[in-house]
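> Could you send the DUF2508 domain-containing protein prediction when you get a chance?

Sure thing. Input:
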Amino acid sequence: MQRERLKLEGEEILSTLRRIQLQLECAQSAFEDVTDESLIDSYIYEIIALQKKYEYFLRAAKKMGLTNGVQRRAI
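Output:
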């Protein structure tokens, strides 16, 4: 029972990391395309927030020994 719960939790963490990676890619792409100062600021804050979120879940994955295939994102 405990193993099953840990396995599900690990899968959820890895899924969250993949989702954040996609969100980061979208935000970075959008950042490169905008010219409005307000939007530039908005995307900068979004990218920073997503990077922090990614780092949090990456630490959680490392604690569970799930770092196989997980990369640290370049800032």
